[in-house]
Amino acid sequence: MRLLLALVALAAAGIADDGRLLLQKPTLSKTHIVFAYAGDLWTVAREGGDAVRLTSGNGNETDPAFSPDGTRIAFTGEYDGNVDVFVVPASGGVPKRLTWHPAPDRVLGWTPDGKRVIFSSPRTAYSRFAEMFTVPADGGVEERLPFPSGYEASMSPDGQAIAYEPIGRAFTMWKKYRGGQTTRIWLGRVSDSSVSKIPRTNSNDFNPMWAGDYVYFLSDRNGPTTLFAYDTKTKAVREAIPNQGAGREVRLAWAGRHRVRTVWRDFPL
To answer: Which of 168, 191, 205, 242 is the most buried (most CB within 10 A)?
Structure first.
């Protein structure tokens, strides 16, 4: 328990025990990386260099997501005591607020045409779960996607389907969890709300990223969490990157059309 509390404290402080910064929630364009650190968003060129702070509000800013053309960044912002969806130019500027509901709205990504931002919110749920919505990136009325619930999500390139988690993760710090709240990834058709499921056997599958004919996702089905790929044509799942390290964390980051990058972080056990 003491070790768990220490890890939580270090994550909250944003500094690892060896002095390295814990830079979180990366999103990539063709030229830049935007990440969350110390409650703000920062941007840096993909080839390296000095990071520049993109937001500086009093509240917490997180969940950045580049628009498909790389010109804007949607993010979850905690301003005025509320959690809402915002967009800001990738080059910097004043964030534009897109949602105003008192329930927390959290950014999931963009529609492929770059016209709408996808987010999750419990605003209309009858109990303690979230549903998925979209909102125009230039401002306007929110629309609920036709699925009972949804968390981390990514839309297909044609905008006709979405890969999503129907239930939220029970734990983000625990490993090898196999209880009733193991996460799974479903593929839903927007036109008729029909759903297909990525094959699994009670593993934790999460963080889906749709690219071309594949849905990439993270899973602990073979032990340590690593990258897997689901072929939407053949319905086959394969391990994309073997992970033999017991102290390694991986997360997906978008890197342009039909490409997926993985971000690794090693940590001592």
So the answer is: 205
pLDDT of residue 65: 98
Query: Environment class of residue 209 by beta-carbon count within 10 Å: exposed (0-12), middle (13-18) or buried (19+)?
Result: buried
What is the separation of C-alpha 165 from the centre of its chain, rounded to a whole number of angstroms?
Answer: 11
Percent of the chain with pLDDT over 70: 83
pTM over 0.90: no
The pLDDT of residue 180 is 87
| Domains of the chain by start residue, with CATH | 1-104 (2.120.10.30), 146-269 (2.120.10.60)
Q: How far apart are alpha carbons 140 and 195 in whole angstroms?
A: 28
Contact 77, 55 (CB under 8 A): yes
Span 57-98, pLDDT tens digits: 888 999 999 999 999 999 999 988 899 999 999 999 999 999
> Which tokens hold the place of 88?
């800001």
Distance CA 216, CA 201 (A): 17
Rounded CA separation 52/121 (Å):
30
Question: Structure tokens of 153?
Answer: 């999500």
The DSSP secondary-structure symbol of 16 reads -
- Can you read off the two tokens belonging to residue 138? 């230039």
Contacts of 20 (CB under 8 A, 6+ apart): none
